[in-house]
Specification:
nine-stranded mixed beta sheet; alpha/beta; binds pyridoxal-5'-phosphate; globular
């Protein structure tokens, strides 16, 4: 039986559009991430899953510990639902209401850690929480710089870059009763989130590999010095780094106590072209064929589920099964209808499904209320996404 036949049979009772997760692929992706982590715990990046039931499944697996959340209201919700007792909000918050709720709730205050990278964050937290103590983590800039800082490769995030800056912020945190430093985080997006083997781009691939290799060396050195400098100020519960694309390399650094990963579970399209790992597509969505405008063309309902980031072709979803379908260059993925071109179109009838993959992992869940969980050739469960639980945090 082909993959497409298996998915069609398993979901034959469902009316597309719908989204599904292939549990076999999901579990094998999770196992591969833990193999790559070499015994260091993986903190699951919830933004890349956005489904409570699947987060719980992952956290029940050996090798995973803790959630990396994307907003404080999300973290408060997960803590309240007892999804996890160690939740790191990986991005700074300016939400005074949520901060006040965090400080008021004893369980949440002992479970949730918020991100800071400047004194202004500390002021804002202390103002909102009225002096009750909140757990904080310092975000470190992990970008790679060259040409005296004129070239920067990597996410533009924290202004804290040197051991001196990190230690100074740690000392300032130590002076304030309203915040307690428990961790450091440095996310090397230029390694963890950039494929080093894009097809048909040998020169670009070589340049990416070169920069990633240099960045890895620079960051490993700097991260070790930063951790040492901050540990001289205070004890740390964790040092977090990495993401799906860098798990084995980040985990190998002595100074790092845990890695983060999420996208590798669903194995979304943007994570297809890495030399160090290859996951199995686990999260798909099915759209129905609703017209056949001409030979070699079918039109499906929906499809315009673009991923965030720089607006280029890489943000489009991928027509996955049957193989051999592509978007029309003038229409792309449409708001309501999407024409698909290719020989495979002639073998599709109205009412058939086309299976797609999203470019990014968790954003798929902002489009669908539920995920149908497929094991073998049947749907074994249907679970709500964050959106399906009425929780759209971003
Ligand atoms: C702080 C941080 N850590 C880790 C990750 C890696 O997550 P994923 O494995 O889903 O790419 C991200 C992704 O953007 C991130 O922002």
């Amino acid at each position: 039986m082909t993959l497409r036949e298996r998915y069609d049979i398993a979901t034959s009772h469902l009316e597309p559009p719908f989204a599904m997760v292939d549990l076999e692929a999901f579990r094998s992706n999770a196992a591969d991430l833990t193999r790559r982590a070499h015994g260091k715990p993986i903190r699951v990046a919830s933004k890349s899953v956005r489904c409570r039931a699947l987060l719980e499944q992952v956290l029940a697996m050996d090798g995973f510990a803790g959630v990396m959340a994307f907003t404080l209201p999300e973290a408060l919700w997960l803590a309240g639902e007892r999804v996890c007792d160690d939740i790191l909000v990986a991005y700074p918050t300016a939400d005074q209401t949520a901060l006040a709720r965090l400080a008021d709730d004893e369980h949440a205050a002992s479970t949730v850690t918020v991100m800071v990278d400047c004194v202004e964050h500390l002021d804002l937290i202390e103002k909102a929480t009225g002096g009750r103590t909140v757990r904080v983590c310092i975000d470190i800039d992990a970008a790679w710089r060259a040409a005296g800082g004129r070239i920067r490769v990597g996410a533009l995030r924290s202004p804290v870059r040197t051991p001196e800056q990190a230690a100074e912020l740690a000392r300032e945190i130590g002076r304030r009763p309203g915040v307690r430093l428990v961790g450091l985080m440095a996310y090397e997006s230029q390694i963890a989130g950039v494929g080093d083997n894009p097809p048909g781009k040998p020169l670009f691939s070589r340049a990416v590999r070169l920069i990633q290799a240099q960045s890895r060396v620079e960051l490993a050195r700097r991260r070790a010095l930063i951790v040492k400098a901050v540990r001289e100020v205070t004890d740390l519960e964790f040092v977090n780094g990495g993401g799906t694309g860098s798990v084995e390399k980040t985990a190998a650094e002595k100074a790092v106590t845990e890695v983060a990963a999420g996208s590798g579970l669903y194995q979304s399209v943007l994570f297809d072209h890495y030399t160090n790992f290859s996951g199995s597509p686990a999260a798909l969505f099915a759209l129905p064929v609703v017209r056949r405008p001409a030979p070699g063309v079918v039109t499906v309902l929906g499809g315009g589920y673009l991923a965030s980031g720089v607006a280029d072709r890489n943000r489009l979803p991928q027509p996955y099964l049957p193989a051999g379908l592509r978007f029309d260059a003038r229409e792309g993925a449409g708001e309501v209808q999407t024409p698909l071109l290719g020989k495979a179109a002639d073998r599709l009838r109205i009412g058939d499904r086309v299976w797609f993959r999203h470019a990014k992992a968790g954003e798929l869940c902002e489009r669908f209320d539920a995920l149908h969980l497929v094991d073998g050739d049947r749907v074994v469960d249907t679970v709500p996404t964050y959106r399906g639980e009425g929780r759209t945090f971003l």
